[in-house]
Amino acid sequence: MLKKLKHVWHIIRRLAGDDAYEQYLKHHAEFHAATVDAPPALSRKEFFKLWQDNKWKGVKRCC
Amino acid sequence: MMNKNLKIIAWLAVALLGAFALAGIALNRGESINALWIITAAVCVYALGYRFYSAWIAAKVLVIDETRATPAERLDNGRDFIPTNKWIVFGHHFAAIAGPGPLIGPTLAAQFGYLPGTLWILIGAVLGGAVQDMVILFFSTRRNGRSLGQMARDEIGAVGGTAALIGTFLIMIILIAVLGLVVVNAMKHSPWATSTVAATIPIAMIVGIYMRNIRPGRVLEASIIGVVLLLLSVWGGGWINNHESLRPLFDHDGLPLAFAIIVYGFAAAVLPVWLLLAPRDYLSTFMKLGTILLLAIAIVILRPEIHMPAVTQFVDGTGPIFGGKLFPFVFITIACGAISGFHALIASGTTPKLLMNERDIRMIGYGGMLLESFVAIMAMIAATVLEPGIFFAINSPAGVVGKEAVDAIAKINSWGFAVTVEQMEQLAKDMGETTLFARTGGAPSLAVGMASIFGSAFGKHLLALWYHFAIMFEAIFILTTLDAGTRVGRFMLQDMLGNFNKKLGETSYMPSVIFTSSVVVAGWGYFLYIGVIDPNGGVNILWPLFGIANQMLAAIALCVATGILVKSGKLKYAWVTGLPLLWLVVVTTTAAYEKIFSSDIRVGFLAAANDMSAKLYSGALPPEKAAVAPQLIFNQHLDAYLTMFFVVVLWVVIVDMLRLCVRYLSGKQVLKLSEVPHEPSRLVEDWVRD
Fold it and tell me: Domain residue spans in chain B?
């Protein structure tokens, strides 16, 4: 039961973008950290700025 | 084997139940029926359409390839291309496609009775809308998530691409104007609604600042705070409504409210997204999903009776809410919920860049549209559970039934719908409003419907709170669409102008931002202004215009899809998109023709213009009407030309698409398919290995 609730919470966080930063850190560690002169990961605040501005380019909502 | 037989029996049962429920609602005459029949019919139709038709399209027509790497996998950059779990993508996709459209359209179309709209919502979605969303999502996924306009250019030619672009821009202008009008009509002389809607602006800003600066990226925390504040604002609005000195501050005519919306729209387009647009979007998404869920639960608990007749006499074109016969106008009025061209923009925008596997296309494209269609069905139920007399009293403009309550009631009674002045007064009092007469636009009547459903299911003494909760819920995501639409319009305009002047095309160049935002806001602001001063209630003009524009966009999307199918050597399957296309072409062309040339002044723009100028010159108009008559006459002409333009754009794309098909079939050279070559998916391999 607790496991299921956790799973639902996980889905809600993912849907809302609440865990976007954690996802980004994971992506960064997986793809960029190992490369030579990899840029350091963005801070939570910097990342959120980029993420939000990026999210609002183009058609996002309709009738 | 046993299992397979069981499945066949189960699906046969679903088919039988669906047929039984459909027959029940279609053949019922005289007595009122229960809303549960409509829900049952809808769920069965959706289940069959999804299980069989969409599966067949996925397997035979599109030939979905699970082993093929999606753009999200190939181009994964952790930002816009991200392989994402299908339920998450479904959530994003649904939140993006489901706006106020499926709530308003069915409410207006309920003037024909519950049956025509319901059938069109079900059939249109299963055979048209969901198919469109799914195939466009598929084609865009196979083209690295290219947009509809780009696909039209790449696959059909420059003409089709330009037409799609201009069509999208214009539809945005009309859509925002009509949505603005709906909000204005909901707030007109309602201090409660106005103060609550006004409060959503600072609330959104608080949420925005919270998640940008105070606790960066804590989206859920911020949203929960916002939702609590929104609920408090509904309650606070009631307090203001009862407050002697605060009340007049929020008690306004339509026109000042319209100007307030115009100023707000401009501000929202120029301000940074994080301050207003993004937080408002979070709040509206939460409110939307929550309220729709609540409505579904309430309908199932309550099982309300439908009071509207199956078919009313207004199918002959004399309806008070909008003029025009059942055919083609029910198909124009209900666009979102049955088939909406706008979805093609979402299905060729963000969504294809998130898909982890092609097999998810069926659930997200087809399934997402079915869910939106279900929202439209619930809106239809909420509108038709009202006593028809009350429904028409709320939705009929003063220009049709008369300004005085007694006249309006007499007129509505003469149509054969029972309602009394006292009944309307009591209802207004219950809902915490001064009057509910002539509150056109669909939002107030939907709110009354929702309030009575919620009230009966969860407590009747809170009717006024439920009503204003429903108004706030509608307003918040109408305003989100208004903000987002203005911004998108601005980007599109900057993109177009960038072809002539590099500097104007820069999205962060402030003079260009202010100039293009002003143009877009002036565009919809004009139609909103005319809609407010029109005594027949601008909804009669603007909603059909929006419907025609939206269906035109859907037809363009289906043209692109049909062209690609033919070019891929799938001529024998081209009817999958070709038939809905044919239907839309017939519907939009007929509707456009009638809107321009009909001699009925409530339908034809030109007839209305001529009628009004004749009255103006003979001096038959009272002075306050004569003052605005020249503007209304000009506007009717403008609307006629705009409609003509829509039809011409549509036919240009169709002819271009047919030219392409003929050239291909006769073995001549055509534009090559722009599909990205096959690359095997590593995600699938990994999955198999695990």
Answer: 2-189+252-665
